[in-house]
Amino acid sequence: MDKALHNAVKTALEADHARLAAYLHIETVSAQHRGIKETVAFLKQSFLELGAEVQVWDEFDGNPFVFATFQAGVNGNANKTLLFYNHYDVQPPEPLDEWHTEPFNLTEVDGKYVARGISDDKGELMARLSAVKALQQTGGLPCNLKFIVEGEEEVGSLHVAQMTKAHADDLKADALVWETGGKDANENFAITCGVKGIVSFELSVSTADVDLHSSLAAYADNAAWRLTKALSSLKDDHDHVLVAGFYDDVRPLTASEQRATEEMSFNAAATRTGWGLKRPFVTEDPKTALVNAPTMTINGLSSGYEGDGVKTVLPKYAKAKLDCRLVPGQEPQQVASLVAAQLKRNGFADVQLKFLLGEAPFRSNLDDPFVGQAVETAHEVYGDQVTLVPNAAGGGPQAPFFDAVHAPIVAVGANWSGSGAHAPNESVRVADYAEDVLYTASLLTAFGKH
What secondary structure does DSSP assign to 382-411, as a single string? Predict the structure, then answer.
């Protein structure tokens, strides 16, 4: 590994610490409409200070997108362009009483940076800008760079599809590096090449115009029971979804995807302990399920009286929120339609389905040269502890980016298994953060050479 690059990364990290702290200090909570203008202004200035050309795209009736471009240095490859996707919004900090430090003040605790957004995803963007600075100090950028930073990821990336269609020419690139990633429970650095999709919906049912006295359960139906019976009809005791056609469009894993899945590490004991799981796993093959098994999850239930004490009512109304995690081949609207049809088929035509949001799944071609380059560079920085993951179990708007750019997408970053991205005391380890900057700079160097 280039000693000059090592030293430049160290210098950049020291110089950029104040910028990282200032960025995290802005309370950019999209769900609460806080800090958006201040954050956009901060990002614009940060990119300009590094010599980028910056545009703010605010024509989509939502939080603005920040788009920045850097040209390759004199000795760089002007024919190669890498696009970074990040987001500047963060989750609300609540519950505040569970934080050990102030959530929007960057604090170093036991070798970790702690703050809301340090892992998801403000810290990652600042690490990438430190990599840019380090490369600028060691001969210039090895390729063209583009950054697209959105402000609605934490509320569903509501306008990404519109943006990618409207600005496909601006976003054009040879490869795309996604928002973040990091190390798994076995300390393996993961190169993740896709995401599951999601469809989120509500199911609701009314059985009366008013809540009734519970004694009338002798003859009147109960909305809570009605809904739970409907929910129960959608899955069997082995976690298999009973919706007709639900699995029909699931694309089987390719040979490369199957091999990568088998080689993934999964620490069952650490997973059980870390999450405090009280029940057995619902599958005998967690690795394959995480990659290529669609799911159906009840996110929440509400009906009747839920306050303290006793109120003996027979609920008139019940509602449940659900999501399905989808895999390549499945489409959100189609899956929602299949669920609605199954409820009717099961005798629950009175249970109404309301579509909330959907994101398509995506998976890069694992045999793409850029994926191989990302893995090779990871071995140079992290040694043997590197794993290739076909796709994450979570979601994100990768599909509309691919439809616009038609380039491979990989997710890498500074997270660790205890980062707690949406939880109190969100963190990254300081050493991982520095390694991530070195990895990013090294990947860009390799990318520019080939």
Answer: HTT-EEEES-BSS--THHHHHHHH---EEE
pLDDT tens digit sequence for 60-117: 999 999 999 999 999 999 999 999 999 999 999 999 999 999 999 999 999 999 999 9
* Beta carbons within 10 angstroms of residue 346's beta carbon: 16
Residue 135 domain-assigned? yes
Tally of domains in the chain: 2
Q: What angle do CA 354, 400, 416 make, to 5 degrees?
A: 90
DSSP designation for 254:
P
Q: For residue 111, what are the domain limits?
A: 3-195+361-449
- The amino acid occupying position 115 is A
Rg (CA), the chain: 24
Structural contact between residues 83 and 68, judged by C-beta atoms closer than 8 angstroms:
no
* Torsion 9-11-16-17 (CA) sign: positive
Residues 427-438 have pLDDT tens digits of 999 999 999 999
For residue 182, is it left (φ>0), alpha (ψ between -120 and 50) or beta? left
Q: How far apart are CA 149 and CA 89, in angstroms?
A: 9
